[in-house]
Amino acid sequence: MPFLPARRKPKLPLLLAVGTLLVTGAVLEVPDAKASAAGCKATELFVAPGGNDRGKGSKSSPFKTIERARDHIRDKGLNQSGRMRCDIHVNLRAGDYPVKRTVDLDDRDSGTQGHRVVYRSYDGPGKARVTGAEAVTGWKEYKDGIYRADVGTDQPFYTLFEDGKRATTARYPNRAADDKWSPYMTSVLKEPEKEAVRQWLYSNPGEWDLDWDLSNAQVMIWSGGSWSWFTDTVPIRDWNQPKNQMTLKYWTRYALINSRGGSRYFLQNSLDFLDQAGEYYMDFKAGQLYYKPRGDIDDVTVLRPTVKTLFNLAGADPSRRVEGITLDGLTLQYTDFVDWYRSGWISDGDSGYPHKYPEYDRQIELPRNRFGAVTVTNSEDITLSRLRMSDTGYHAVYALFANDGLTVRDSLLENIGGDGIKVEGPYPGEGNTSNGHLLTNNYITHYGELVPGDASGIELMNTGHNTVSHSHIKHSARYGVSLEVRPEVAPKDNYARGNTFEYLRIEEAGLDSGDMGAFYTYGVSNVEPHTVDNHVRQVVIGDVIPDASMPDSGTRGVHMDAGGCGFSFEDIEVGKTTDQSYQSYQCNTVENGNWEADFDPSRMEYDKIGVTDDFPYPLPDGDTQ
Fold first, then answer.
1. Which residues pair with 519 in a beta bridge?
2. DSSP letter at 523?
3. Which residues, other chains included, contact 107 with Cβ-Cβ below 8 Å and sequence gap of 6+?
4. Which SMART domains match (predicted)?
5. DSSP class of residue 577?
6. Up-side HSE of residue 504: CA atoms within 13 Å toward CB?
7. I need a surface site. Which of 24, 271, 429, 580 has the fewest CB within 10 A?
8. How many Cβ atoms are within 10 Å of 557's Cβ, its own excluded?
9. What are the backbone dihedrals phi and psi of residue 338, each rounded to the nearest 5 degrees, phi first?
10. What are the extents of the domains in the chain?
């Protein structure tokens, strides 16, 4: 289905001016959500955990829920054009705001006449905590340190947490450590003619215990044999023990054998696998949760997620956008994953809709997987500032299709199920509706926890005129930063132009995959002449060393894949890799990369690379940057 054009041109001059300031090394001040326009007194509403939705929304009589404050603004018309003469502040007092359904903000909730509606943590960054989880209670001892609780079958969930730390779905073989995905088993080729199958998984005799109960089990697999590019998480439909064959419920993205090489995988979610503290098993059919706590069951809090998205900011369509809204200083914690996952459709045109470039079906998320803890679509001028986001089932921030001028800044994102920040424009050639985003001063760490394949700290797809700057991105099975379209897209239909990446520190990328770069592009400029209009400067990339089990080709610092042209690189430093520091076609320019003999380290502005000194949260991982 074709997408409607944007109702107005993106506000590029302002955003490009911002980019200019960042290029000079200047640090922009965070807009103070407490300050309104000169001579203007903001409307102040208050929400508190101990409030009452029948209250007045004042400081002394606060509302209890965010939705009640939102509805009060709607009902009173406080943000209507012609009436809104100042900002509106929705002040969330310190404490927890558990949600059982997504908080939706649409074009009715927009700021108007140049003013903003600001949902903020009133008592300081991180003090107001919006959480998408609830405690599991009623535990009864099962055996061997394992406890069981009845959780029902009406709301299944696909990740779990103990005292703010993600639990591991019981798996075989057991993981080596909490921050590793390995070790794995490897699929085998049963018969030569079965090499291309995507639904039959074979093992060698003796690798599987024939007494396992796999009635609720899944396979997590790097499909494609040696192609360690994407991971699939797929339920097991059937198991033929005599043949050492499992049939998966859905096809994987790639074949399970490639060039007679097998795919790495592990099995998960069987009670027979539950033998480690911090592991859980969910019996979906009986509605029973089994868990082996890290501590005493009476002293820990086990949390099950209640929502996949905490905030959904969505205009009705590209001509009716939600705009002028800020989320500031909030802690956003706990969201859910999905029952099965595959990245994109398998073949061109599989979406069933006519598109100018049906190849993009293989690039875009399936509709069922288009969500983040904060999901943004059909928007303009949305700001996410000083957020502390953690323990998400999937992406932390996902901006999809028609969005202009999204800002994500000064935020800490950690323990993320998928990408940290993903910005995806429309199908190529169907309207340039995603432009001018500013992603700056963010610390993103331990992402891709549930979807290690293709995970990126920041992923831009088919979007242009963006600035990604002053950020620290750390610990990923795959990418640090990526910019992608498709190699088949004609220049006039390719919207990934005019992007700037600068003052970035990328560490611990490529921990479990190959044929990749910590900075990665795919299909961005495919036809000569290659206009250089994407720019990368002042970037430090640490060692890119994969797990020993990874069979694919090597890891790289910078990898300009399939049409990755039209870039300038200036002042780039790369640590150890298993292949090249820099792999590219002869279609990009390089000035002062440390893989060249004349590299001058004095040009590196180390003191400005990564997050700035005024980053609002303590840095994780013991970092002192």
1. 481, 558
2. S
3. 315, 316, 320, 321, 322, 323, 378
4. PbH1
5. B
6. 31
7. 24
8. 31
9. -125, 165
10. 41-118, 135-303, 393-608
> 582 near 573, Cβ under 8 Å?
no
Q: Are strands 103-105 and 43-47 parallel, antiparallel or unpaired?
A: unpaired
Confidence grade of residue 533 (pLDDT, cut at 50, 70, 90): very high
Angle at 109 between CA 103 and CA 114, to 5 degrees: 135
Q: How far apart are CA 174 and CA 194, in angstroms?
A: 28
- Burial code (b: 16+ CB inside 10 Å, e: under 16) for 146-167 equals bbbbebeeeeebbbbbbeeebb
Tell which residue, 401, 441, 440, 447, has the closest CA to residue 420: 447
DSSP bridge pairs for 506: 473, 541
Per this entry, what is the length of the chain? Answer: 625
Residue 454 per-residue DSSP state: T
Model pLDDT for residues 228-274, shown as the tens digit of each residue: 999 999 999 999 999 999 999 999 999 999 988 999 999 999 999 99
The two structure tokens encoding residue 329: 């200083």
Nearest to 213 by CA among 264, 263, 274: 274
CA atoms of 427 and 413, how far apart (whole Å): 28
Q: Which residues contact 366 (CB under 8 A, 6 or more apart)?
A: 342, 344, 345
d(CA 344, CA 208): 30
Structural Rg of the chain based on CA atoms: 24
Structural contact between residues 531 and 464, judged by C-beta atoms closer than 8 angstroms: no
How far apart CA 616 and CA 395 sit, in angstroms, is 22
The per-residue pLDDT for range 340-358, each reduced to its tens digit, is 999 999 999 999 999 999 9
For the purposes of burial, counting CB atoms within 10 Å of the CB of 197, is it exposed (0-12), middle (13-18) or buried (19 or more)? buried
* C-alpha to C-alpha distances, 276 to 100, 295, 304, nearest whole angstrom: 30, 12, 19
